[in-house]
Amino acid sequence: MRRGDHDGPRWAARAALVRATLVRACLAALLAAAIGGAAHDASAANVPSYRIFLSDGTALVSFGEFARANGSVVFTMPIGAPANPDVLRVVTLPDTAIDWERTDRYADAVRHRHYASTRGEGDYAALTGAVARALGDMAFAPDAAAKLAIAADIRRQLLEWPATHLGYRSGDVRELTAIVEEAISDIWAGSGGRTFDLSLVATVEPPSEPLLPEPTVKDTIDLASAAAGLTEARIERLSLQEQILAVLDRRRQGLPRDWYRTTRKAITSDLRREAELDERYEALLARSRRSAREAAARADVAALERLAAEVQRQDARLGYRRPEDMRALLAAIAAQSERARQARAAREQWQARKSLFGAYRRRVRSSLGKFDDVATDIAAVREMSGVKADRLEKTARRVSAIEVALLPLSPPEQLRPSHDLLVSSARLMKEAIRLWRIAAASGEMNTARNASAAAAGALLLLDTARGRIEDFFRPPAAP
Predict the structure, then answer these.
(1) Which residues lie closer than 8 Å to 471 by C-beta, 6 or more apart?
(2) Which of 183, 356, 377, 426 has a CB 3.0–4.6 Å from the CB of 395, allowing a cystine?
(3) Is 85 a domain residue?
(4) What is the mean pLDDT of residues 250-276?
(5) 60 pairs with which residues across the strands?
(6) β-bridge pairing 72-79 and 67-69
(7) pLDDT over 90 percentage in the chain
(8) Beta strands of 44-198 (E only): which ranges?
(9) Total domain count for the chain?
(10) What is the rounded average pLDDT of the residues 51-57?
(11) Contact 190, 7 (CB under 8 A)
(12) What is the predicted pLDDT for the residue at 478?
């Protein structure tokens, strides 16, 4: 008798066993899904809150999922009954204060519970239905290869299911997988094969982290107070404490009397202490800014350095309670100190210039004054408005005297180009006067225009040189 003749009854018996097992699983899953659907709203309401575990073991309550970003954790904290809180407050804490390993485990457990109470049984019923359909298809498949293809596909779905469904009913899924794998082995053996590769997949188990009971109103207030103590942003901390006080007063009748008084006293004392610190820091800031402005106006670097040291001593006495304000104040004092240093250096440089180049400064100022005496006549040439011959002759002599006075002067090296511009201005003025005389005598318009251009250039050079020389000797502005 052929091997296939023995395997026929054996496969039929195995298929009947598999079908019976799957039918029972489908019925159980469908019944559970029906019961779960009827109680869906109540189950969803009873889903436990997320928790964020601090390094000391304190379990803060998070209303929904939390987020991590830029070294912080951001979450919504309920104050009051978590299912119907009086206040939902967004809180930011440094992630270094968090026990992330336990927090992540607990989040997985909450997600698993939520999934189990909402969609879990329905999805599991769909899976068992798919297995049952695959079994039926295998029974009517024309040959062993077709049977194996169907079985391999449903096995893949079973192996992937726990990882994509939070490990829900992973034990039951493993039993179904074992039944399908045994059926595969029987089909393979019945077809004459000796081995069949069944790839292994890592087992996914449901989360094992125990869930905590939901906190009471008193618990949420205690936890919110603990979160306020860890909040780095002062405004956020004060706002949170004020909201805690509001919930305390609203829920006063349902809270333990002694605990209510103690908690309220502690929070109001903190808020009062913060208000007093506000006043003292505001006075310190105002006083320090005024002193810094006065010292900066005098370019008194030493006074600014003493002020910075005094500000830090006062901050230490107050307990370093306003780090942002103090950093800003010290940065402003440092900036004013730097400007004062620059102003003092500029003033010292100006004093040195006055001392070293005093003689040049006096003589060049005299020449600039004489340029002013002839500037009106040179401007008349530029405008081609006419100048009397005798007046023009006198102007020419004055310009020549200015040039003679400028030539022997020894300007500072920085002013050498500017001094040369003054000499060039005097020479252009002489040229403008010469050309204007020719134009006046001959009536040639082109020569008159050349005289006007020379006069314009001379005045431009004069203005440029004057500005540079005055800037060089100008006292520095106050910082």
Answers:
(1) none
(2) 377
(3) no
(4) 93
(5) 52
(6) antiparallel
(7) 51
(8) 50-53, 59-62, 67-69, 72-79, 87-94
(9) 3
(10) 95
(11) yes
(12) 61
**pTM attached to this predicted model:** 0.61
Sheet arrangement for strand 67-69: 67-69, 72-79, 87-94
Rounded Cα distance between 30 and 42, Å, is 19
User: Do the Cβ atoms of 476 and 340 come closer than 8 Å?
Assistant: no
Handedness of CA 405, 410, 412, 414 (dihedral sign): positive
Query: Could you say which DSSP state residue 51 is in?
Result: E
In this structure, how many other beta carbons lie within 10 angstroms of the beta carbon of residue 235? 8
Banded pLDDT at 329 (limits 50, 70, 90): very high
pLDDT single digits (tens) 382-391: 998 877 888 8
pLDDT at 278: 92
Cα distance between residue 49 and residue 363, in whole Å: 89
Query: Are 29 and 136 in a shared domain?
Result: yes
Of the candidates 27, 40, 31, the residue with the CA atom closest to the CA atom of residue 116: 40
Among the candidates 169, 190, 211, a domain finishes at 190
Between residues 333 and 81, the one the model is more confident about: 333
Are the C-beta atoms of residues 87 and 247 closer than 8 Å to each other?
Answer: yes
Number of residues in the chain: 479
331-377 pLDDT tens trace: 999 999 998 888 888 787 777 777 767 788 888 888 899 999 999 99
Range of 177's domain? Answer: 3-40+114-190
CB 179 within 8 A of CB 158: no
Residues 414 and 393 in one domain: yes
Name, in order, each residue with C-beta under 8 angstroms of 283's C-beta and a sequence gap of 6 or more.
none
Q: Would you state the pLDDT for residue 195?
A: 54
Cβ-in-10-Å burial (0-12, 13-18, 19+) of 205 comes to exposed
| Positive/negative CA dihedral, 293, 294, 300, 301 | negative
> What does the alpha-carbon distance between residue 406 and residue 465 come to, in Å, rounded to a whole number?
13
